[in-house]
Design a protein that fits this description.
Layout: E1 8-12, E2 19-26, E3 31-35, H1 46-52, E4 57-61, H2 78-91, E5 97-102, H3 104-115, E6 120-126, H4 135-151, H5 154-164, H6 167-172, H7 174-186, H8 189-200, E7 216-221, H9 229-238, E8 243-247, H10 254-257, H11 259-273
Parallel strand pairs: 3-4, 3-5, 5-6, 6-7, 7-8
Antiparallel strand pairs: 1-2, 2-4
Helix pairs in contact: 1-11, 2-3, 4-8, 5-7
The site of D-malate has 7 residues, from loops.
């Protein structure tokens, strides 16, 4: 699954925020929902879907504005996207699940945990952080959103690529480079701009971390240039009983760069928390 296969679809949300969400729903067993980052899509999780579907029901949605999901005018806030996931679970008649997210998907997973704590059986936070953007980062999001609308995603994809992957991956693993660049370049510029504006206005979730009661696994690449290990260590200090694994020779997209270690950590964690 490196390109988008034909997804299932469902409508979630109300009024102007009603949106169609595309998703894959594979396997059977305890439910694991994995949320991709910006500006990716559900194929980010191809290796995890393959590894977990034996023994789990794995649900990978395209967040609003990304992949095959719809776009709604206005900022795609983390709360709106968390609400979309709750709506998806409602439509699938799923009460509780393991909720995981990478980067922006992690911001959404944290918002989901804050808004719908009883629906989170366990939490997986990969290459993400609890802090909000500082002023400089907010301004840069506005610049990037305007650039996406004006020029499309190709230039943004080229500029982001070396921040997403280690230098070693960029130099030696063309298939991963192609997949990551392909996801970024194919994201709808309006959807990307909406996500950028949503991330710029996201709230700081640091003070919420100590309220999390769900078992939590935190994963980060040792060479992550966007959400460095220090961000993961902060979450690990604040979330009671959380486990942190730093994966070597991996950057921001650690699940694609080191799928063996990433999947082993996921499996170990899930088998420990599933009753
Ligand atoms: C992501 O991978 O989702 C983004 O890099 C997150 C961000 O820009 O803060």
């Amino acid at each position: 699954m490196t390109s988008l296969n034909v997804p299932q679809r469902t409508s979630v949300g109300r009024g102007v925020n009603r949106v169609e969400i595309a998703y894959d729903d594979v396997g059977s067993g305890p439910v694991v929902v994995l949320l991709h980052g910006y500006p990716f899509n559900r194929t980010l999780w191809r290796d995890q879907v393959a590894a977990l579907q034996e023994g789990h029901r794995v649900i990978v949605p395209d967040l609003r504005g990304h992949g095959g999901s719809g776009i709604v005018p206005g900022p795609a806030t983390m709360e709106l996207m968390a609400g979309d996931i709750a709506g998806l679970l409602d439509n699938l008649k799923i009460e509780q699940a393991a909720i995981g997210g990478l980067s922006m998907g992690g911001y959404v997973a944290l918002a989901f945990c804050r808004l719908f704590p009883f629906r989170v059986q366990s939490l997986i936070l990969a290459a993400t952080r609890a802090q909000a953007d500082n002023d400089e980062a907010k301004q840069n999001r506005e610049v990037q959103a305007a650039k996406a609308r004006r020029e499309g995603m190709k230039g943004i994809a080229d500029a982001l690529l070396p921040k997403m992957l280690t230098a070693e991956t960029v130099a030696k693993r063309p298939e991963i480079v192609k997949h990551v660049r392909g996801m970024m370049a194919s994201t709808n510029p309006e959807g990307a701009a909406a996500a950028l504006q949503g991330m710029a206005t996201r709230q700081d979730q640091t003070s919420f971390l100590s309220e999390i009661v769900a078992p939590t696994l935190i994963l980060v690449g040792s060479e992550d240039a966007i959400t460095p290990p220090a961000d993961a260590e902060l979450m690990n200090r604040e979330i009671k009983g959380s486990r942190l694994q730093i994966i070597e020779r991996a950057g921001h997209v650690l699940n694609l760069e080191q799928p063996g270690e990433f999947n082993a950590a996921l499996r170990r964690f899930l088998s420990g928390v599933e009753g």
